[in-house]
Amino acid sequence: MTTPTSRADQVERLPAGVLAYVGDAVYELYVRVRLVQGGLRDLDELHRGAVMRVSAKAQARTLAQLDTFLRSDELEVARRARNAHTGRGPRNAAVLDYRHSTGFEAVLGYLYLLGREERLREVIEKALTIADAPPGGPGQ
Known about the structure:
This protein is mostly helical. Helices cover 70% and strands 0% of the residues. The protein has a single domain (8-132), classed as Ribonuclease iii, N-terminal Endonuclease Domain, Chain A. The chain has helices at residues 8-13, 16-37, 43-54, 56-65, 72-83, 95-114, 117-132. The longest helix has 22 residues, at 16-37.
């Protein structure tokens, strides 16, 4: 996926909700492509596999485990997004999970908009390793 390159000061001024909006789309696409590349063809299985990885609960768990992997600027974006009032509340998630998942998505949106493709792939690959492991299992 080709990423745009925006000036850092422009990206840093974007509201956290906007970064999360972009990051949500980026992560969803990566997850779907990964499932198809993994051989899934049944639409119900594809949907369940995607939901399992992109749910607020899964993303909150992922962000918690990425804490030592993320760089200081990425952690700051996640913190800002977690604390932001986006105007929306969670539909099917606990408030805390929703806020942490917003932080995770904001980091991905931030990296995508800056055009940091290699770092974006590193973070997503690490996130998918975490998401694919059972809670409390190896690799976490």
